[in-house]
């Protein structure tokens, strides 16, 4: 076992993990933050996206030991109490979710996009979200949600 320590959603956390433990497993199983979803186990769907040191990362492709000392934000860390993050509001306002399974990863990826490119074109939004799969929405309302959050 190895001890890992990191900041998750602004709170210092630590835990003992096997060296092969994925970051998504640590987040869900040890920290009990279940908003980060496990969809495919192969890095294809994007449901597990979190931010590590400010960058979106598929947490099923990163070991918990690789995040030792990192600053991690999960979907639970976006809202401010009962006040949704603007991206979460935009997804709600534009019906950018249906079953909701992909939503945490989509939102986290979209937040990262706007941090890097505050006024993306529709093409840039679609290209950025390419690594996130939604089986329900057809992506149109997701793109509209990102546009709303970006003010474009």
From TrEMBL:
- The source organism is Nisaea acidiphila
Q: List, alphabetically, the CDD domains matched.
A: fer2
UniProt-listed Pfam families: Fer2 (PF00111), Fer2_2 (PF01799)
Span of domain 2Fe-2S ferredoxin-type: 2-78
State a single Gene Ontology molecular function: metal ion binding
What is the protein name given in its UniProt record? (2Fe-2S)-binding protein
Q: Which InterPro entries match?
A: 2Fe-2S-bd, 2Fe-2S-bd_dom_sf, 2Fe-2S_ferredoxin-like_sf, 2Fe-2S_ferredoxin-type, Beta-grasp_dom_sf, Diverse_Oxidoreductases
Taxonomic lineage per UniProt? Bacteria, Pseudomonadati, Pseudomonadota, Alphaproteobacteria, Rhodospirillales
What keywords appear on the UniProt entry? 2Fe-2S, Iron, Iron-sulfur, Metal-binding, Oxidoreductase
